[in-house]
C-alpha cells in the first residue's frame, strides 16, 4: 500500500531528517556550539534593554550597566578594574556580560546565583552605581513612560526591584554570540578554521585546558583555584570564593571565565593584570598546568582562541522615556 504524503508532511519529514543530520554532524569535543536564545516575551526584553542603558539608575546619573559592560566593546570596559561612582576604583576586572547566561553563577566569586540576582548588586554598590534600591524605584516610578511599560510586561504600575532585575536579566539572556568560526567547525565545516588554528586547538585541548574551559561558553561552569602548580602573584586584595564560603580551600578560587570573544575582553584575569592574550596563555600554562609553552605554541593557541569570536548582538540604541517634574534629579557628587 502506497501512502501519498502532503507537501506539509514532506516538509516536516525533511526538517526532521535535517535536524538529525545536523545533530550527528556536531563533532564530539569538550567545547560545544552556542545556541541562539529566543525570548518568549519580546516586550520584557525591550524593557530590560532600556534599563541596561539607563543612567538614572545611578546616583550620578551617568553610569549604567553598559558603562562597565559595554556592548560595543565585547561586553566589558577593557579596564584592569572598573571605575564607579566618584571615580572609585573597583577591586576586580569586569567580566563580559556576553554569554553570561551560560555561567554556573555570577560575579568572579559566584555570590549571585543567576542574572537576576546579579543585576541588583551594582545598582546599590557604593563603588559602582551607588543608588539605594528605594531611590532607584522612586526614579522609575516617577516616570510615566516606564510605568506604562512595566504595566504592559508585569501587569502593575507599581515598580519593584524584582521587576527591574527580572527585565534586565531577560535582556541579558539574549546576549549570546553564536556562529563563531569554531562553532562552524564543530558543526562539520572543515574550512571554517585554518590548519594553524586547529593546531592551536589541539595544543589547548591536549594540555588540559578544556578541563576547565568547556561547554557552550568555553568556561564559566566551575570554580578553580588561581595558581594550582605555582602561586599566582597578584596585587588584588580579593580572595575569590573564600569571601563567600569562609572555607580556606576556596581561597583564591574564582569562576572560570568564558573564552568566547576573548580577543575583545582584555585585560585578563580577575585582577586585569594580563594585558594580552599571549601573556595570559603563558601565565596560565605555567601556574595552572606547569607548562612552559614555546612562542610558536602560544601563537597557535591565540590563533585558536580568536576563532571563538561569534556574532555580536546587533542592537538599536534605546530611546529612554523622559523624566517628569517629580523625578529625583541626579547627584553626581554625593
TrEMBL record:
- TM ranges: none
Fill in the PTM field for this protein. Binds 2 heme groups per subunit.
Native species: Azoarcus taiwanensis
List the Gene3D superfamilies hit by this protein, alphabetically: Cytochrome c-like domain
Name one molecular function that GO assigns to this entry.
electron transfer activity
Q: Which UniProt keywords apply?
A: Electron transport, Heme, Iron, Metal-binding, Oxidoreductase, Periplasm, Peroxidase, Signal, Transport
Which stretches make up the Cytochrome c domain? Answer: 43-151, 195-309
Q: According to its UniProt record, where is this protein located?
A: Periplasm
User: Where is this chain primarily localised?
Assistant: periplasm
Q: Which cofactor does it need?
A: heme
Cofactor: how bound: Binds 2 heme groups.
**Do the record's keywords include DNA repair?**
no
Q: Where is the signal peptide?
A: 1-23
**What is this protein's record name?**
C-type cytochrome
Amino acid at each position: 500500500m502506497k501512502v501519498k504524503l502532503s507537501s506539509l508532511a514532506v516538509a516536516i519529514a525533511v526538517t526532521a531528517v535535517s535536524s538529525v543530520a545536523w545533530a550527528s554532524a556536531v563533532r564530539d569535543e569538550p567545547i560545544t556550539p552556542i545556541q541562539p536564545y529566543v525570548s518568549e516575551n519580546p516586550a520584557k526584553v525591550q524593557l530590560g534593554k532600556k534599563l541596561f542603558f539607563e543612567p538614572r539608575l545611578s546616583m550620578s546619573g551617568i553610569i549604567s550597566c553598559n558603562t562597565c559592560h559595554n556592548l560595543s566593546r565585547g561586553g566589558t570596559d577593557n579596564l584592569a578594574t572598573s571605575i564607579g561612582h566618584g571615580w572609585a576604583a573597583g577591586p576586580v576586572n569586569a567580566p563580559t556580560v556576553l554569554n553570561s547566561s551560560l555561567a554556573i553563577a555570577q560575579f568572579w566569586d559566584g555570590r549571585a546565583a543567576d542574572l537576576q540576582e546579579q543585576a541588583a548588586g551594582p545598582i546599590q554598590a557604593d563603588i559602582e552605581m551607588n543608588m539605594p534600591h528605594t531611590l532607584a524605584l522612586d526614579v522609575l516610578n516617577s516616570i510615566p513612560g516606564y510605568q506604562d511599560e512595566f504595566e504592559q510586561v508585569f501587569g502593575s504600575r507599581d515598580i519593584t526591584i524584582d521587576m527591574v532585575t527580572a527585565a534586565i536579566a531577560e535582556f541579558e539572556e539574549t546576549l549570546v554570540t553564536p556562529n563563531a568560526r569554531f562553532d562552524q567547525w564543530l558543526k562539520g565545516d572543515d574550512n571554517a578554521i585554518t590548519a594553524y588554528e586547529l593546531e592551536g586547538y589541539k595544543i589547548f585541548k591536549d594540555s588540559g585546558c578544556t578541563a576547565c574551559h568547556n561547554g557552550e561558553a568555553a568556561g564559566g561552569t566551575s570554580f578553580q583555584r588561581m595558581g594550582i602548580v605555582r602561586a599566582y602573584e597578584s596585587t588584588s586584595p580579593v580572595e575569590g570564593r573564600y569571601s563567600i564560603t569562609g572555607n580556606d580551600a576556596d581561597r583564591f578560587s574564582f569562576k572560570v571565565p568564558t573564552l568566547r570573544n576573548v580577543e575583545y575582553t582584555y585585560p585578563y584575569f580577575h585582577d586585569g593584570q594580563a594585558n594580552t592574550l599571549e601573556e595570559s596563555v603563558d601565565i596560565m600554562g605555567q601556574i595552572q598546568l606547569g607548562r612552559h609553552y614555546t612562542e610558536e605554541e602560544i601563537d597557535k593557541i591565540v590563533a585558536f582562541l580568536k576563532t571563538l569570536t561569534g556574532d555580536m548582538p546587533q542592537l538599536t540604541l534605546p530611546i529612554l522615556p523622559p523624566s517628569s517634574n517629580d523625578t529625583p534629579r541626579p547627584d553626581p557628587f554625593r
